[in-house]
């Protein structure tokens, strides 16, 4: 509850490159009123957040009516973005797959204060007067710190991997002590929890970390992040579909899955090759972070469920002496919503 005794509604927003998911987390820790819609691929950040606010309010309203609390109850909103954030979580440093959310400046740093913090007079005050002051004034006047949310609402900016990581960690009873999560979707990301704390692996970063580089040859493909040989260039959804077409196997992941189900030899060879790139990254991850377990999930794994098993089999055969189990995810496409809502409600343990 907030200081006024009102129930706070935890809302998770998981902004993916292709799908935006919004949902509420109930007292049992389950995601309810989950809404999925396509992500706009162009436009302005302000317009995008106007639409997002409508969906947040709608999910919260449905939940409030269900449990018979005021529909203007304050919200704890976690917004997970496919982006890198500044260390203070106020700025988007880079958003490669949704560039319309990035406002370029001398250093390519976007300020979200103009979007997230709107004062009670209806104009942005985050840049000129400081976001904290604007939030205080907005709440005092009954407006909101996140566009048009109820008074007393809070917003926490997160990366998509942080949210999914925490969701998966929560679903496993917050164990073991060293928990890693590799997420394969339109992009690729890795996160780790050490002794109950989310490790900030990407603050102010503009490229993938070194442990996600799997090809250091001169012919390594360039990555949208600006480096070469990143895991994303081999196993992300777009990269996989491009490679499948190059091999004449299929035009998309659904076709690849059908070929695997039909036990086509070439398809299974391609699966082992793809798993091999992931194992290279896992070797780097094990050396750097020593996780007790790594959970692999994301849209690619949902599209090709055989991939996680192939990675586990190959990892065990080539990493002799390794004790790092490989598991599939439990949260599916709602893990990010769950994690974002819980981190917004409880705070980010870092």
Helical fraction: 25-40%
- The chain-level structural class is alpha/beta
Number of helices: 12
| CATH topology type of the largest domain | Nucleotidyltransferase, domain 5
The backbone outline, from C-alpha atoms, is globular
As a whole number of angstroms, the C-alpha radius of gyration is: 21 Å
The CATH class label of the largest domain is Alpha Beta
- Strand order of the biggest β-sheet: 3-2-1-4-8
Question: Which regions contain 5 or more consecutive residues with pLDDT less than 50?
Answer: 103-146
Give the biggest beta sheet: 5 strands, mixed
The figure for the number of domains is: 2
Strand content: 15-25%
**Could you give me the name of the CATH homologous superfamily of the largest domain?**
ATPase, nucleotide binding domain
Kindly report the average pLDDT value: 83
CATH architecture verdict of the largest domain: 2-Layer Sandwich
H/E topology pattern: EEEHEEEEHHHEHEEEHHHHEHHEH
Oligomer: single chain
Q: Distance N terminus to C terminus?
A: 23 Å
Number of E-type strands: 13
Q: Can you walk me through this structure?
A:
- The structure is a single chain.
- The chain is globular.
- Helices cover 37% and strands 19% of the residues.
- The protein folds into two domains: 9-162 and 335-346, 2-Layer Sandwich (Nucleotidyltransferase, domain 5), CATH 3.30.420; 176-329, Nucleotidyltransferase, domain 5 (2-Layer Sandwich).
- The chain has a five-stranded mixed sheet. A five-stranded mixed sheet has the order 11-10-9-12-13, sandwiched between helices. Strands 5-6-7 form a three-stranded antiparallel sheet.
- A hairpin with a 5-residue loop joins strand 2 (19-25) and strand 3.
- With 350 residues, it is α/β, with parallel strands linked by helices.
